[in-house]
Amino acid sequence: MTRKNKIEKLFDFMEISHQLKKTKRYLHTKEMKWKESSADHSWNVALLSFIVAEELNLKVNIEKAIKIALVHDLVEAIAGDTDHSLIAFGKVTKADKYNAELSAMEQIKKTLPEKSGTDVYNLWMEYENGTTPEAKYVKALDKIEGIDHMHRIGTKCFDYPELIAAYSTKAVGDYPKLKGMLAELNKRLKPQFKEKGWGWKKEYDLD
Amino acid sequence: MGKLTQNTKKMLAFWEETEKLKLIERIPVLSDGIRRENDAEHSWHLALMLMTVRRELDIKFNLGHALELAIIHDLSEIDTGDAWVEMPEAKRKKHQAEKVAADRIFGILPHVTGKQLKDLWLEYEEGKTPEAKIVKALDKICYSLQYGISNKIVWEGEACSDKRRKDYALPYVGHDETLAAILEYYSELIDRNQKGQK
Fold first, then answer.
1. Within a 10 A sphere around the Cβ of B100, how many other Cβ atoms?
2. How many domains does chain B have?
3. CATH (domain of B170)
4. Of the candidates A6, A44, A63, which has its C-beta nearest B56's C-beta?
5. Domain range spanning residue B170?
6. Can you list the domains of chain A with their CATH numbers?
7. pTM of the model
8. Which of A68, A75, B49, B145 has its CA at a distance of 20 to 30 angstroms from the CA of residue A45?
9. Which residues of A touch B110 (CB under 8 A)?
């Protein structure tokens, strides 16, 4: 492939990935005006992925973690954001979501030249499989970022207690070095739960 | 443990502060024509571009380092906004204001990490290292690119001339032949789009 073809394909990729700036998150919440885009969120997770690793002295490959963070939601440029409430309430199965996202990723891969297309595909797959330290780390940050966002917007966006307090426990359980961050976040969520008249279950806290 | 908790609190305060980057509007509009893109979205897109360019084209730079620069390069705009300035005096003033902003924002973090980020930010501003140069060049191309993507949308009567788009990026790509090729291709693309519309 000539350099010119490659550059052309890189621009095709930029055009398709730009869709992520229009993909809205938190679709289950009624409050409309503060919904952020998946691109916003991906930037935020990428920022956290190197600051938190430095600060907590984590043994992860930072460059790889940043790359995973940058592409972890890229499929949503085509498949849209499948809100986690849809899965929690059984309206969409995990398998359906995965298949739609996989086919989106195959499409995205094709827009890129071979090497970078394979890179992006593999990074996303690594995130989905969640077996490497970097994938686990970014998954935990992804959830913590989401909850921190809800916490900051405040109780007006709190629709379902389970989707907030229990949202990040599994991912953080799989990457226990972020337990301290989750504990601090939970400390801040508790008064909001009280304000809302919701009970705080023991299982929300990881020891 | 005390120090760790203290640092965790500082980090959360920093998250809270930097979330505001999502509120800083840039000039280019998104292709839905509903709103402009914001600084966070732009920074993400720029980082993604760096990743793919590094892999495909013959430009040597440390990717991890460049990604960090791209992700934080606009954080000072949380305080100053994304102002378009062309005059040298206005540029100097903008830079001064951004420096004050960077001190405030990175000062929220625990000392060592805060200093590290401030140094990254300064490196980008100075634009001397290979990483700072490539991030700056692609930053300018991204600007034009977003304009190109939403080309057909007339937004509140604003127009950005093609010449201006090319001229804007030109001083930042001249040092590298591959970057110049990217800009050249992009300029062709703009011309083709223009013809297609006529």
1. 12
2. 1
3. 1.10.3210.10
4. A6
5. 2-197
6. 3-204 (1.10.3210.10)
7. 0.93
8. B145
9. 55
